[in-house]
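Teaching note: in complex prediction, the entire set of molecules is handled at once rather than each chain in isolation. The prompt given to students was simply: 'Predict the structure of this complex.' The entities are:
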Amino acid sequence: MIQPIHSSSGPGDYPTYEPGETVALFIPCYIDQFFPQIGEATARLLTRYGIPLAYPDEQTCCGQPAFNSGYWEEARGVIHHFCKAFEPYKWIVSPSGSCTAMCRVFFEQVDPDERIVGVGRRVFELTEFLVNVLGVTDTGARFPHKVTMHSGCHGRRELGILQQPLALLQNIREIDYRELPNIEECCGFGGTFSVKMPGTSLAMGKSKVENIVKTGADVVTSVDISCLMHIGGMLRRDKATRHIRCMHIAELLVQE
Amino acid sequence: MGSDQMHLQGAPFLKAENAGLYEPAGSQSMGIAAERSTRQNQELIAAIPYFQEWRRAASGIKDYAIGNLDKLLVEFEKNITARGAVVHWAETAEEANRIVLQIAQEHNVKTVVKAKSMVSEEMELNHAFASAGIRALETDLGEYLVQLAGQRPTHIVTPALHLSAEDVGRLFADKLGEPYTAEHRELTAIARRHLREEFVKADMGMSGCNFGIADTGTFVVVENEGNAGLSTAAPPIHVALMGIEKVLPSIHYLPQFLNVLARSGTGQKLTTYTHLFHGATPGRKLHIVIIDNGRTKILADPKARMSLFCIRCGACLNACPVYRRVGGWAYGWVYPGPIGAVIVPQMVGLEQAGKLPFASSLCGACNEVCPVKIDIPHQLVHLRHRAVNERSPMNLWTERLLWQAWSWMFRGRRRYKLAMAVVKMGIRIAPFLPWHPDKLGAWTRGRELPEIPPQGSFRRWWRTTGANLKPADRNTP
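The expected output is the structure of the full assembly:
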């Protein structure tokens, strides 16, 4: 198993959560619109641990698509909007490694303003919040299926998220976890990369799909549904792989 | 550099992103070889608990060296000149070519044997030699093969990564008249036999330079085949090409770099040969050409300066999922892969190579393996920002307008909902469209669109159900 070699914010420097503190949910735009069940699973999961939740209704997007495309000026306005919505909250949790990395690592590049950077640093990815902040590695879930995990690059390389989802998955009752060969290679999604360089993106996706098939899993999970949107889109295109479902890890962790 | 730039514009990556890139551009073995190399290097590195310390140290030394280039280069010049070398300074590739040709012509050179040098590729030196009627022969096996085949290197360390043993067998049969074989040992023997005579006959030898050491006036060349040793020792004149970023402050730091270079590059603990040239050998001539060729442009951008730390090990190429599939030629210039996508646009200008920083999924595999910790993915995003704002093929008012509209839409809840409703409608009608334009077509070329959830959005669920969820009656564990 690979180890995170480089991370901007390694484990160990997590603040302490005091019981009763409100956690604001950051539900990224594509989850809000296309995968609401992931947001729901996230909310139900956190509520189980007695956490009062808030959902700032003004939230839209973290600005990552524009930022990664070079349009930092356009991203800045959206980031400011994001920070206005989330500023009142001490804790912000999101079911996405990639969007969390955007907030925590890249806000600084777009606007070094202390308040903006401060809001960004308060965003945590769901599994790292569970494991590193709450100290939960077993959610008591049961999921009797063959499951493999895709590790999103942004979450792993920018935030060092890998062991957290693995630990949570391996503690699920009756799960048949299959390690994905070549887990460290990118699936080829890369946000706008997937439509700017579709040929290369699909060639990378093809290898990922082949490796998923090799595991014999029926379910592919990840902390990032954005990668799974691309991988799942390819899986559904082919009759032979259509039966393989893509599920966010939060959906697995709430199964009872 | 004229011909390079033409080549750059003709590169498939830059010309049509969609064409020919679905399948790997090189031979399939190339991607496999690159992947294998990364795995071997990582295994080797994993065996050393303090490897990350070495990386940090190497990165810190480079940081100091690049920040003090002005002083260190002058110190290097002073010290190596005192040991009998002649130092030349070249601002551009043309100037460097002129200097090398002048040295050759002064000594009536007819044949040159060359050890591997990426700077010489930058300069297109072999063309310059050819037009001056001088025969230049690459002696690094990979470079030799690529030169025989009339191609360009696909990789900065393993130039013939794209050629299989069968390809080489056919090449030797075709160009050298040797009987066909795909046996590695026999192929090596053929190359050795042909190259050996050349070393003895050559009037001038050339090499690159891995490190130029300021405090002792030493320069270092690492290699595996012995060809650099022969190229620099057999002929009466040795001309070394050195990029300005190659200087190190002190010989005490050399082991740090030797430790990380071979491990990251070829998966060896140390290269077979490490040559330290302490000035000219008595009775022989040593010339060093120190070349800028666009490097000071990188130095001028503090956010991008880190890319000058590069020691050309090639680890980022091997680790890059994009490089593994499209190969080195697709990038269109001498330096391919992630580091190429960072330094080439700065060296030749964003106007020429502004698309290169976009040839990445920003996965960060490059940064993970870089022995001097160059923050390549962050540099790529920085260069994307520059590319859409400065003169470059990526600075398009149509795209700017699109992102401005996006930015406006995402700065308000109602506008956002409206935009999303439009997107969803688009997805619903997409199956009925006779063809899919632009980005939609790019997505559906090999992927299904996401399904529209029947229950509506998350925020709707939150309003009706989520907001009423009661936190469980237990404290946080």
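Point out the following to students. Chain A has two domains: 8-133, 146-253. Residues 8-133 of chain A form a domain with the Rossmann fold fold (CATH 3.40.50).
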